[in-house]
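Section 4.2 – Deliverable D4.2 (structural model, holo form)

The reporting period included a commitment to supply a predicted holo structure for the target in complex with nicotinamide-adenine-dinucleotide. Inputs used:
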Amino acid sequence: MEQRKLRSAIVGCGVIHSAHADAISQLHEHVELVAVADDKLERAAKAGEALGVPHFHGLDALLAWGEFDILHVCTPSGLHAACGIKGANAGKHILCEKPIDVTLPAADALIEACAANNVKLEVVSQHRFSDGMQHLKTWLDEGKLGRLVFGESVTKWYRTQAYYDSGGWRGTWELDGGGALMNQGVHYVDQLRWIMGPIKSVAATMGTLSHERIEVEDIVSATIEFENGAVGTLMASTSMVPGFNQSLEVYGSKGSVRITNSKVMFAQFVTGDEPQTMWGLEGTPAPLVVDGVWQNDDAEADTTTQGQGAADPRAISNLGHVAHLKDLCECIHSGAETFMNGPEARYALELIVAVYRSAKTGQRVMLPLEA
Ligand SMILES: NC(=O)c1ccc[n+]([C@@H]2O[C@H](COP(=O)([O-])OP(=O)(O)OC[C@H]3O[C@@H](n4cnc5c(N)ncnc54)[C@H](O)[C@@H]3O)[C@@H](O)[C@H]2O)c1
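Output (structure tokens):
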């Protein structure tokens, strides 16, 4: 049976809305953009004109019209739950930008509203769909890494002072919910938690060292104790000129994987008594063999800023947004649970909230957190 084409509307016509509009147009057989809204009328009008759809002044006006199925929430982070709850209460499925929101009570309220209204919730964490992360997850699930020993998430990005000065919400606790970790590091915090599993405790240090007029951190570092006994570290900064690619390193008793810019840069596993070299995986650059070990020769990917927003928040690939939207559309039709549902997205938020609590109190913080 042919499936009905779904209708999408975007609220929040700033930097990220075009990634959503692009994703919708790439999935035109399944979904179409039918409206945009922003609480700044001129922004809504400009986006509506550029995208060839009607525009609305604010979310309430968009919902009063109501002729759509999916609400794409692209507003500042601290408004995600408020906007998503309004949408859910109006019977709309929600595709929410990362993070799910900036506080656990807000995230929980959004999750509850979607469940109560029987609508789907999908939260963006686009790197989960990357080739590198998909390989790593498969190797993990196949047991190739053995017992997990250590995981490290690194975000050495750069944001200018002008970036923080450009929007009233950026760099505020209320609406950005934090700085380098909540806004930029969240991508790889989510990958770290996804791969390494539940967290037992964190201890963190943070500071605001290279920016002015912001309330939040531009550098943070934490040590992590995982429930499975593994150890971890994470760091995030927006102070690292010129901005380097995010990386995730995972070490197990039987193998090591290093991912940079969503690509596997190094992977080696032990089978039996001998190290096993991984070869020529589909979709990865040609491997360089050094002493029988698979290494990725994409030195640029390893060190410089390539399409992941390391220095420019607009410079992101939208393959992950397409994958999220496709998953949401399929789940709306099938009734299945979404890949990145509310509880799954809440894990990264919980870890970030724990890091901030630890840095502010100087105490190691135990998880799970009371909301
Ligand atoms: N997935 C990614 O890689 C990625 C990249 C950038 C931003 N984001 C996320 O997207 C969200 C938006 O970021 P941005 O950089 O596009 O911000 P932005 O400031 O460029 O755009 C936000 C827009 O929302 C509008 N807005 C604010 N409050 C509103 C309200 N109550 N109702 C309707 N519209 C409202 C603003 O007028 C503005 O046009 C953030 O949560 C951010 O974390 C994700």
